[in-house]
Amino acid sequence: MNLLVFTKRVPATQEEELRIVNEGKKVDLSKVPYKLNDWDNYAVEEAVRIAEKTSGSVTAISIGNAESDEVLRRAIAMGGKEGFLIETATVYDDPNARATLARNFLKKESPAFDAIFTGVQSEDDQFAAVGGILAAKMGLPYVSMVIGIDTVEKDHMIVRRELEGGLQERVKVTLPAVFAIQSGINEPRYVSIMGLRKASKVERKVFKGADYEGDMKSMIEVNQWVYPPKKAGAKILAGELDDVCKELLGILKEKGVYQ
Amino acid sequence: MSYILIISEVRRGLFEERNLDSIGLSALLEKDSFLFIPEGDYAVNEKLVHKILKTSVGENAFLNPMLMINALQKIMDLKGKPDVIIFTSSSSGNECASYAAGYFNLPLVTDVSGYDKEKGVFYKSYYSDKIFGKFKPSEDIPRIITVRSGSFKANAVEKATAADVETIENISPVEGRSFIEYVEEEKTDIDITKADFLLSVGRGIGSQDEIPSYEDLANLLKAVISGSRPVIDKQWLPKPRQVGTSGKTVKPKVYLAMGISGAFQHIAGMKDSDCIIAVNKDAEAPIFQYAHFGIVADVHKVRDKLKAVIKGT
After folding, report:
1. pTM tops 0.80, yes or no
2. 3-state SS assignment for residue B4
3. pLDDT in tens, B121-168
4. In sequence order, what are the beta bridge partners of A113?
5. DSSP letters of A144-155?
6. How far apart are CA B146 and CA A220, in angstroms?
7. Are the CB atoms for A171 and A159 separated by under 8 Å?
8. Cβ–Cβ below 8 Å for A234 and B248
9. Under an 8 A CB cutoff, do A166 and B102 touch?
10. ipTM above 0.95, yes or no
11. How many other C-beta atoms lie within 10 A of the C-beta of residue B184?
């Protein structure tokens, strides 16, 4: 089985303090480290496991600037066969634009595939949309929030998708199809420096994004970036620990959860 | 015709509460609101919207993005294009919304959590909620929006009269994806989402050996024990006990967080609790931003002292 996995290089902002600059027109990411989108990491791992079981192959694809090569190297180090970089000068914020570019690329280059994997969402824009838009534009079945793959057959897969509150839905999906992979589906393998070095010797193909723009257009645009409203913060219970604990129990009583 | 189409979510015969956020946003947008629901034996307040479109395809069909496309097509054929289509920002909401955006080539903004009525601006979070983007939609609507749970519920108010109900039939069936069954994630003795009082432990408790002692405290307090992601990843507590985006979203009356620093993924799963009390030795821990009460101290000392006070020793 041949699988294509879309991978995105994203700013790792969780531990960073972010600043809005240019009068709200830009978020300063210049000092933020970048990495493979967490959800895509799970998607690559899942694809590699299927490829290993079915004597197939995984091709990692990334849309972005030249530095996105880094996530392709990582995907190859995890067991991917090759990497395609669709190099674009601009960052397309609209998932519709990114999905259209991806669709145009797949149509023109027609790499063989049985399934396309993406992460459920990317950490930076949290849109959770590229996989669905891409699938619809290609006329393929789509299933997102995939948390378990039960059966892999030549013409279909049976997968579980995560709903809310611990509930899952088991669905049968005819191949080829697009799957958006949820975090926690597997334990992604460790990638060593040595592995990355070896992967960098595998050739990655670079394609010019402009060649695939075609009918692509951004339909939405952020006018302004703002900080979330500042929270009031906790009332700190201070003093002797004995008193603090009594005060805490008092709060619990007041809230009606403790007698 | 100018109207807003709201796609509802019904799960195992329950009209999900998050639908109220979609209805609330539609009220703010001040257009006629049409609620699309599957037929079923459940209650829905018919005064919240102007019109109800009911279909005999069951709730499972609403889980299928391909079938949703056919349903939307049918509705558009009968009613014209809606100005806005609103889904919930949920597993299926985002799945169907993105598929519809691709199929009908419509602008899409997911996870909308704010709307400025005066300026006509939508807010969507970026970078783990550290920054919000403001969107001013262009005039070429229709567009698709998914709504973050808890954002607009308060705006869903009853109208004087109940909506009239219309039936939508002959939605074309689909191939390619089919529902097999619902699956419970993992059988568990307790459902932390139902608890009134959660005692949640984090990485800060140090090791698995400490767990029994926190379980003791939880028993004394009649609280249910839960944990943050690191605790679950290390298998100190089972997966069904996980609070956070990849675990459970909880809203207890009291959420007592011990040794949890408050990564966003955790905050997202508990921030709507009525009362959040955080115990952490690091006064700068982000959880204190979201907590109502805080104790800056060693968690183990607080645990031991609480036990002593409860036992009256």
Report:
1. yes
2. strand
3. 999 989 877 789 998 876 656 699 999 887 899 999 999 999 999 999
4. none
5. EEEEEEEEE-SS
6. 14
7. yes
8. no
9. no
10. no
11. 10
